[in-house]
UniProtKB/TrEMBL annotation:
Binds 1 Fe cation per subunit. Belongs to the pirin family. Residues 38-133 form the Pirin N-terminal domain. Keywords: Iron, Metal-binding. SUPFAM superfamilies: RmlC-like cupins. This is Pirin. GO terms for molecular function: metal ion binding. Its cofactor is Fe cation. Residues 185-285 form the Pirin C-terminal domain. Residues 290-312 are annotated as: Disordered. InterPro entries: Pirin, Pirin_C_dom, Pirin_N_dom, RmlC-like_jellyroll, RmlC_Cupin_sf.
Amino acid sequence: MSNQCTNPSLDAEGVAVDDVRLLEARAVPLGGVRAIKVDRLLPHRTLPTVGAWCFLDRFGPQYDDMTVLPHPHTGLQTVTWPFAGEVRHRDSLGSDVVIKPGQLNLMTAGRGISHSEFSLGDRPLLDGLQLWLALPASADSVAPAFEQHADLPVFADHGLRARVFIGSIGDVTSPATTYSPLVGADFSLAPGDAATVPLRPDFEHALVVVEGSLSALGHELPSGPMLYLGTNRDHVTVTSDRGARAILLGGTPYEDDLVMWWNFVGRSHDDIAAARAEWEDGDRFGVVHGHDGARIPAPPLPGVRLTPRHRR
């Protein structure tokens, strides 16, 4: 599913690359009747994945309640990276933890898991990222798991300090469990700062500013949209007049067919249909205790067969 260019152009740094794009988010309600608004960057209609990253929501900043009843997942890992507020996570493995800023919360769905997410406090300030990683075909049926990491490594070089919450930058590697080569890192620039962020040429990468603004590859990047950097580069230089906080995502281009629908990642329509049926009437996803049986029902499948997402 990678979109390799046979005659790549030169970017603002003189590097031959296949593609650079600024992609806007779209507003999506999350959580049913008591929905909060999220800004969704992935999947984008022209770009379904960045490496194995197949889903990216920004929830906030907003003063609201997050009330997401138990719901299922398959074939993916959820990565929760909060900036403000606290959320209680409960899942069908028996996990019951508070998600706090600065901690990585990683749930591996594998063959099937269910969980709930409720904010703590009365209409708290909530802000953060919810991301999914599509598991490769070799691992999409692994046993479900949950892990939380509060002590995360920092890559530091010539003024750049990047907290690596998953994957690797250079020789700095997060302790989080991964199933494909990738990176997820959070870095900040002070006003007037410039930094060189090392990249792997075999990865595709993207930048998302979450606070302030920065310049990269000739683009002025405010908070909100995602700058897709393409492949075939070993660094990107970023500068900021006013200061910025940004997220770097990347990984080897995802080559497997990928069918995404509702909370499921599969390889075919039949995978998705089976998962939906078992959520509605089965025990594949277990029980999230503490909700008296309340949960989010699966929406009806569309009237056509689901097909893999492809780039445009």
